[in-house]
Amino acid sequence: MPKVVLGKSILDEAARTAEVRRALRDKAARVLPRAQRLAYAAGAKAFGDSLRVEEGTRPGTKSPTGIKRPFARVIATSADASAVEYGDVNVNKQAILRRAMGA
Known about the structure:
Shape: elongated
Order of helices and strands: HHHEEHH
Strand content: 5-15%
Distance between the termini: 37 Å
Number of strands: 2
């Protein structure tokens, strides 16, 4: 059986397809309402209200091959987002986004 080698251009092209972007967007769209429900149940209304989906393309500067990969992620923009997700001296860790992803 011959060996198949995928080059940078093929991977780059595949990552830019509409199907890949749609799959990433669909996954983030499924995570968003779960994260909001978890936030509201934990009493973190401001955190839940600030959740949104962000899409874009990574610049590829850290990749050894320079591949520019698309992404879609759920982010929280509230002032206490870091404290709610990771915890701090005054707030217990909630890990809402991690739990919403099912990890």
